């Protein structure tokens, strides 16, 4: 049997990516898990209170396994050195008719509390991005039999995750939507730029854990090819943005359905970390301004109100329209179950014993 199915106790080797920022509604997570794949709550920016609520609702909607996704970095930050960026961002706020930006920024980190909650709630699977969890947290999760999935964008990161005790590795190719999982963005300012095909092959050859392929996947033929190559499963984000159950706002959905394959770019304009998004006016104007983008998560916190207003007023030009290169192949909204059925080639997983 496919090791991924065995470890995660699921029937179909497809994972709905944890997507922070309200996309992964409990309805989406539960619908994916109920269809036999793995749903994931994107809890990177969530407070413990909202994560608790989300976990409870998922549990009401499914008895199948599901995962919680976290950021393996400390988000805690305080800064007053934000004047120049706020001045630029205030031009957007003025245009949108929202309150001007504050003179200081503060972000809290709840990683420890969320880990405690995950253990208490007996969530069976945790996935992480942006690095490796501390050994203390890994030990705590493992003692409670929680399966750990780590995101890697190169072999070096995959080896670090393997050595730290993670159970499965996601090979996140350059095509992937949203933030690059790359650990060292000083060394790789655009995130590591290895394509999925090359990355999967390098991890299969050098890593003993099951490999999950992610990035630009939207069609069942791609999945069949990746499983044949030796991947144990796949993780998809963008494809689920237009699931009927997802929390994606209407203008974002329309932008994904309208997008062509070449419409995405890598940008740090929204968050201070490299991420793949549909190109829009905000990205172009921030880049043209020449004003230095602040580091993650400061930039992310500063642009939050503008992106939220963009969502409220259906202005896609100021939203972070995270999307992978496969967006061009996504043409309709469907239920999560319909998406999974359209992606899953009957018995494809059973043919490969990896
Ligand atoms: C809207 C969006 C938000 C994302 N947020 C997260 C996140 O919070 N944590 C994470 O590990 N990955 C996140 N990702 C990346 C996914 O884990 C995955 O690597 C990616 O979606 C795969 O590429 P695809 O979007 O082309 O399917 C996000 C992706 C998207 C599209």
What does this entry show, briefly?
With 354 residues, this protein is of the alpha/beta class. The protein is built from 15 helices and 13 strands.
Which tags fit this structure?
TIM Barrel, 8-stranded parallel beta sheet, binds flavin mononucleotide, 354 residues, single chain, disordered C terminus, alpha/beta
Can you tell me about this structure?
The structure is a single chain. The protein has about 350 residues and is an alpha/beta fold. The chain has two domains: about 230 residues, Alpha-Beta Barrel (TIM Barrel); about 110 residues, no CATH class. It is about 40% helix and about 15% strand. The strands form three sheets. The chain has an eight-stranded parallel sheet. α2 packs parallel to α3 and α4 packs parallel to α13. The C terminus is likely disordered. The site of flavin mononucleotide has 29 residues, from β9, β11 and α10.
CATH domain class name of the largest domain? Alpha Beta
Figure out the total of helices.
15
The main β sheet shows up as: 8 strands, parallel
Q: Element order, helices and strands? A: HEHEHEEHEHEHEHEEHEHEHHEEHHHH
Oligomer: single chain
Bound small molecules, by name, code or SMILES, are:
flavin mononucleotide
Kindly report the CATH topology of the largest domain: TIM Barrel
Shape: globular
Content of β-strand: 5-15%
């Amino acid at each position: 049997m496919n090791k991924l199915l065995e470890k995660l106790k699921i029937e179909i080797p497809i994972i709905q990516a944890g997507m922070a920022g309200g996309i992964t509604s409990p309805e989406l997570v539960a619908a994916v898990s109920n269809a036999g794949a793995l749903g994931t709550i994107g809890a990177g920016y969530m407070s413990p209170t909202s994560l608790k609520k989300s976990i409870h609702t998922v549990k009401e909607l499914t008895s199948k396994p599901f995962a919680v996704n976290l950021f393996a970095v400390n988000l805690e930050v305080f800064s007053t050195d934000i004047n120049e960026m706020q001045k630029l961002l205030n031009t957007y706020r003025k245009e949108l008719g929202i309150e001007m930006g504050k003179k200081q920024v503060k972000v809290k980190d709840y990683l420890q509390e969320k880990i405690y909650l995950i253990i208490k709630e007996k969530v069976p699977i945790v996935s992480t991005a942006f690095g490796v969890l501390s050994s203390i947290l890994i030990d705590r999760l493992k003692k409670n039999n929680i399966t750990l999935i780590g995101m890697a964008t190169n072999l070096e990161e995959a080896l670090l995750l393997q050595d730290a005790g993670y159970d499965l590795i996601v090979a996140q190719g350059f095509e992937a939507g949203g933030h690059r999982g790359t650990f060292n963005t000083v060394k790789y300012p655009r995130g590591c730029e290895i394509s999925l095909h090359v990355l999967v092959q390098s991890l299969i050859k050098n890593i003993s854990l099951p490999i999950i392929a992610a990035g630009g996947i939207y069609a069942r033929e791609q999945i069949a090819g990746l499983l044949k190559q030796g991947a144990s499963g796949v993780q998809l984000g963008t494809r689920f943005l237009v699931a009927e159950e997802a929390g994606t706002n209407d203008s974002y959905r329309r932008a994904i359905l309208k997008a062509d394959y070449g419409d995405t770019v890598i940008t740090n304009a929204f968050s201070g970390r490299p991420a793949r998004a549909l190109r829009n006016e905000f990205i172009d104007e921030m880049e043209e301004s020449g004003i230095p983008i602040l580091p993650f998560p400061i930039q992310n916190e500063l642009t939050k109100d503008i992106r939220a207003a963009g969502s409220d007023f259906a202005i896609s030009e100021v939203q972070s329209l995270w999307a992978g290169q496969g967006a061009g192949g996504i043409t309709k909204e469907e239920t999560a179950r319909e998406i999974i059925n359209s992606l899953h080639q009957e018995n494809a997983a059973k043919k490969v014993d990896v």
